[in-house]
Amino acid sequence: MSWLVTGGAGYIGAHVVRALSAAGLAPVVIDDLSSGHRGFVPGGVPFIVGTILDRGLVEATLREHGVTGVIHVAGYKYAGVSVQRPLHTYAQNVEGTRVMLEAMAAADVANIVFSSSAAVYGTPDVELVTEDLPKRPASPYGESKLIGEWLLRDQATATAGSRHPLRHTSLRYFNVVGSADLDVYDTSPHNLFPLVFEALIEGRTPRINGDDYDTADGTNVRDYVHVGDIAAAHVVAAERLEGGEPVEAAYNLGSRNGLSVREIMDAMARVTGIDFTPEIADRRPGDPDRIVATGELAARDLDWAMRYSLDEMVRTGWEARRAAQG
User: Fold this and answer.
1) Mind giving me the DSSP string for 137-178?
2) Of 276, 35, 315, 79, nearest to 182 (Cα)?
3) pLDDT, average across residues 60-89
4) Using CA atoms, how far apart are residues 91 and 7, in angstroms rounded to an integer?
5) What pLDDT score was predicted for residue 139?
6) How many CB atoms lie within 10 A of CB 278?
7) DSSP letters of 6-24?
8) Residues of each domain in the chain carrying CATH 3.90.25.10
9) Cα–Cα distances in Å, from 6 out to 69, 71, 231, 239?
10) Annotated active-site residue in 11, 78, 141, 251
11) What gap in Å lies between CA 145 and CA 131, rounded to an integer?
12) Residues 110 and 162: beta-carbon distance below 8 Å
């Protein structure tokens, strides 16, 4: 009995792999290393280098390792850049998910946890986002994640009367930060935490992309959630699917209390001990003003909780990044 983690050599996926191992669910990794790192995969974990767009490879992996479920983390995750690269985004996120579901059906694998995104909501006009809020994605990335959820829903409907009906859930979250293992850190060239860390390491001044948003301090507001908490929720979702327990079609992994980019910058200076005044740059296309979710359903079913303070999020991420320097 094992679980395939797509994108398991990436920042989030590698944490999921470790959480699965700790829970006694044997992980298997497939990753094309386009943004992941071989060194992020622990020794002893089966690691297949390849793309989820390769139906034959995915099906063979599922069969060879006796996979009973998939945690589908692989994808192109950059909302702002997706505006310039919509076709690439759809190929990776929509076609990749379709191929994964096709391979799962062929190999009689019926459980999947999908790494979705709060970007499916676009720019909501409510204080707190709940799962039933209308979906109005503001970027090709958000659209691709929403289509991914539709694919799961439709395949579940299509297989409802079969020997192996698809069981699924989608986890929606926004900014994942920090580290739960010194060997794994966020290497994204677009995410806020690594951008600030790299600037500080190189002696540059970090910058804020836009200070004219419709928020209290003019910088956009998000759920910032610790990667360790995110990984743990994926594992509980997998366990519920494996055990035949009921799950919702989607869960928000939210903080209920958003943080602004400026608040993040203040914490960065405070925790690292490097004083700076951030530069102000232009907005990134596709970035909404505010997305903050409740996480109540996930707390009920997935043991979801915010177990790290803002300073702890910064500290764990900074320590992992510094450890990578040797």
Assistant:
1) -SSHHHHHHHHHHHHHHHHHHHTTTSSS--EEEEEE--EEE-
2) 315
3) 95
4) 15
5) 92
6) 20
7) ETTTSHHHHHHHHHHHHTT
8) 177-222+255-324
9) 11, 6, 13, 17
10) 141
11) 14
12) no
Closest CA to 90 of 144, 148, 22, 151: 144
Q: Which residue, 112, 114, 155, 131, is CA-closest to 241?
A: 112
Distance between CA atoms of 294 and 253, rounded to whole angstroms? 8
User: Mean per-residue pLDDT for 160-173?
Assistant: 96
Give percent of the chain above pLDDT 70.
99
Within 10 angstroms of residue 1's Cβ, the number of other Cβ atoms is 11
Write down the CATH number for the domain with range 2-174+225-252.
3.40.50.720
Specify the pairing of strand 2-6 against strand 67-72: parallel
- Written as six digits, the tokens of 262 are 């400026």
What is the pLDDT confidence band of residue 105, given thresholds at 50, 70 and 90? very high
Which neighbouring-strand residues pair with 112?
Answer: 70, 168
Burial of residue 105, with CB atoms counted within 10 A of its CB: 0-12 exposed, 13-18 middle, 19 or more buried? middle
- Give CA–CA dist 121/128, Å, rounded: 11
Encode pLDDT of 27-61 as tens digits: 999 999 999 999 999 999 999 999 999 999 999 99
* CATH superfamily of the 177-222+255-324 domain: UDP-galactose 4-epimerase, domain 1 (3.90.25.10)
In angstroms, the CA 131 to CA 181 distance is 30
> Which residue in the block uniquely carries the two structure tokens 């992996």?
61
Q: Is 308 a catalytic residue?
A: no
- CATH 3.40.50.720, the chain: domain bounds: 2-174+225-252
Question: Looking up tokens 């039933």, which residue turns up?
Answer: 132
What are the angstrom distances between the C-alpha of 89 and each of 96, 254, 269? 10, 24, 34
At 174, the pLDDT band (50, 70, 90 cuts) reads confident
Name the amino acid, one letter, at 296: E
